[in-house]
Amino acid sequence: MASRTALKKQISCGKCPLRDLDCFRKMSPTEVDFMSEFKSGEFNAQAGATLLVEGSNSPHLYTVLEGWGFRYKSLPDGRRQILNFILPGDLIGLQGSLLNEMAHSIETLSDMVLCVFERDGLYNLFKSSPSLGYDITWLAAREEQMLDEHLLSVGRRTALERAAYLISFLSQRARRVGHLSEDQPLIPFTQTHVSDTLGLSLVHTNKTLKKLQERKLIRWSGKSCHVLDEKKLMEIAGWDGLPETPRPFL
Amino acid sequence: MASRTALKKQISCGKCPLRDLDCFRKMSPTEVDFMSEFKSGEFNAQAGATLLVEGSNSPHLYTVLEGWGFRYKSLPDGRRQILNFILPGDLIGLQGSLLNEMAHSIETLSDMVLCVFERDGLYNLFKSSPSLGYDITWLAAREEQMLDEHLLSVGRRTALERAAYLISFLSQRARRVGHLSEDQPLIPFTQTHVSDTLGLSLVHTNKTLKKLQERKLIRWSGKSCHVLDEKKLMEIAGWDGLPETPRPFL
DNA sequence: CGCAGGATTGATATCAATCAATAACGGTGG
DNA sequence: CCACCGTTATTGATTGATATCAATCCTGCG
């Protein structure tokens, strides 16, 4: 269950600690002011909570401030496909805001802190601040790019390559937003999550991860995965890594 | 080879015949004027031409006026994954315009007519016409939604379900933009294209399509596929179909 | 201690890839 | 008009990858 702590502005956008990370593009003071105005609150969700449900029509848009989550879709009989993972700086709920209905669900993997916006204000954002509108489009294009790569992975990579791609991908993303600190292992997810991402069965996923472990590229402990050799994983996957360009952060 | 016939404005946007289709949202006169201004020409490409190449940095954005195409990515050793198909009304090259580098290639399946825009004018569009900026974002979100469904398909559907999904998906899309007329069968593509979309081998794709044919749901003739029973295909795939909402058209 | 959820493992069953031909078709040059 | 050719579609046989089934083993937790 997601626990609604307080829907008020707990941090002013200007002081948002994330804003200082290298991976994010700097915002002008005007833009920061606008975002502070646009922000309608913060939302704290517990690990395992469902944030948005396929078919629903949420009145909110969120920017992730902290924590891990994932987007997924299901078939009528329950088979599930994880579409992408969600990390700090990601904008979520855009599809729902624009197309009027979520076609996927979102769940948290860890406790999460989200910045809340009213979807009704979205059009006004485009009107008042073209640069922020542009940024949102930028983020949408970036999500599309990640999905393209995932699709290539699930469609054409072998099981081992897929696993290697997934883990190096998440490792890079997490590192950039400071979510791979010394104390934190890596990803707070189970092998079931991995299998639903890779489009493989749980058993086969386990055997595949084991191979990566034998080669000392990763280490699985408890409910998370340590990345020991990102480079080698990328090599196995035939993946070039994420672009270095700083991205917008709302 | 793509043949550049003439890069001038051959049709004013206001008279664009596509604009009258039900599937597209109507544009205000101001918006139409803006687009006419933004439009820098038309481009005619022949079937089989490569429009954009992974890694390149095209100065253009396009809206499709006519014809079929597809986006794809490849692995270093040549394995190819088709990401999505391109039909009239689609905006292409947005990733390249925003993120500065194409991460996928685009090829035509039939002769194609494209409306050309300068990517440098994109930011100005957001500034001058927030509603058009919003529309572009809308289109990006729609593309994302299609990719989500493809990913679910490739990751979790069986071969038969995937094929059924793909064909009903294309059938719906084509019908809406009037590309399934009496005289035209359906899609001008080969089974190799199908296999690269579904993430299956060519042989297995052939056997799978054959099953759909035996059940009288499709008919393969020459280099194209007739859809005989879209409803049944959707049922097999467990797919609900595209949303009915009219979409923006630039 | 006893559970429950997650990770592992070995055996077996399927699905899909690969290999190897052959057939069908459209286009070309003679 | 016909022989020739390249591309695409089709098929059967075989191999290989992945799914499924069925246990067992952990580990954190009440």
Helicity level of chain A: 25-40%
Named at the architecture level, the CATH assignment of the largest domain in chain A is: Sandwich
- The N- and C-terminal alpha carbons of chain A lie at a distance of 26 Å
How would you classify the helix and strand content of chain A by structural class?
A: alpha+beta
From N to C, what is the helix and strand string of chain A?
HEEEEEEHEEHHHHHEEH
Instruction: Count up the helices of chain A.
Output: 8
Low-confidence stretches of chain A: 1-7
Roughly how many Å is the radius of gyration of chain A?
A: 18 Å
Structural domains of chain A: how many:
2
Question: Got a strand count of chain A?
Answer: 10
State the assembly state of the protein chains. homodimer
Strand content of chain A: 15-25%
What kind of sheet is the major sheet of chain A? Answer: 4 strands, antiparallel
Which CATH first-tier class of the largest domain in chain A would you pick?
Mainly Beta
Using a beta-carbon cutoff below 8 angstroms, give the protein chain pair with the largest interface and the number of residues from each chain: A-B, 52 and 52 residues
Mean pLDDT of chain A: 92
Q: In the CATH scheme, what's the topology name of the largest domain in chain A?
A: Jelly Rolls
Strand order of the largest sheet of chain A: 1-8-3-6
Essential attributes:
homodimer; 250 residues; alpha+beta; Jelly Rolls; Arc Repressor Mutant, subunit A; 2 domains; four-stranded antiparallel β-sheet; 20% strand; globular; disordered N terminus; DNA-binding
